[in-house]
Amino acid sequence: MAEYADNTPVRNWLSIQSSGHLPLLVVITLALLLSACTEKTITLHGAVQFADTHPYNQTLLKFEELTKKYYGKPVDFVLHRNSELGLEKDYFAYMSQGISVDYAVVSPSHMSTFAKSAPLMDMPFLFRDFDHWRKVLDAGILEPISKQVMENADVMLIGYGGGGVRNLIVNKPVRNMAELKNLKMRVMGAPIQTKTFQAVGATPTVIAYAEVYNAIQTGVIEAAENEALGIEQMKFYEVGPYIAMTAHAITVRPLCFSGKTFRRLPEELQSAILRAGKESGVFGREIESAADRARLEGMASEGKLKMVPFADRDKLLELTLPVRVDYAKEVGAEAILDRINNIN
Questions:
Q1: Burial letters for 18-33: b for 16+ Cβ neighbours within 10 Å, e otherwise?
Q2: Residue 131 burial (CB < 10 Å; 0-12/13-18/19+)?
């Protein structure tokens, strides 16, 4: 929640002194300084689950840098790191309510309660490759989803980060459809995630992100799915050292901003935030997509994990196609899916 300085005690003191205890020129000067300070002391609070080396943090720090640059007036940012304010689903709820968090990077799956179409952005097998992914994000095809999120949750999607390739994190080798069958795996909370992995024969279950490590370690599940930087940050390789290279998703991670906070800000700052959000999203995509494969290969070379080729990826695409089509119909996003599929 944006904060503004409270100068009431100073105002009271100034009022008393203006009765004759200070020269008039001094009173006027102090009044002007107080007015300037009151106008410029805005503090915005961000939140992220990771440390500064993670692309989400770097995206938010770039957002801060660009906002200050384009606004040209003092504005303070406080970024709460390392899950200090909870997890992404908490950040989204806070932004919707206009409390605690003003901006954050949030997975689309955490928006599904407010906007049924939101998880389509992160739907498994939505993008053919990185080139397709970039063209979709640059073409503005996802804007109808952004509008729905704003209308229902009062949270603005001001930029699109992401770029990690998600694979399966498993406690045993999974190389083909036969070994994938009945695999007990964690998925995110959006129903599309569950339906997709059910369609390929796995046994998905929704488990909180913070509980994944222990769930694999204790045998509650055998697998999860994530991109390289998430695997490294959470040390999932310690309990799931086999990475089945399913490449089932290229992530889209919107940079979100509280609508309630936004409407309270000066117009010049609003314009700066919108410009900075778009540009920092592009910045985040570039650094995450570049770092993702490099870190996965780096962890493999360090002996932390084993990259296991998956032989039947074409079969995964075939089995999940009806799920994508049905889901788009269910959430009224057939036109969006058609536009995505038709980009060459």
A1: eeeeeeeeebeebeee
A2: exposed
Q: Let me know if 9 is exposed, middle or buried by CB neighbors in 10 A (0-12, 13-18, 19+).
A: exposed
Q: What is the pLDDT of residues 239-258, one digit of tens each?
A: 999 999 999 999 999 999 99
| Spatial separation of the C-alpha atoms in residues 211 and 59, rounded to whole Å | 26
Domain 41-342 has CATH 1.10.10.410: no
| Rounded Cα distance, 272 and 221, in Å | 45
Predicted TM-score (pTM) of this structure? 0.79
Q: Which two tokens stand for residue 269?
A: 């700052």
Which residues share a beta bridge with 166? 249
| CA–CA–CA angle 273, 276, 279 (5° rounding) | 150
CB count in 10 Å sphere of residue 129: 9
DSSP symbol at 110: G
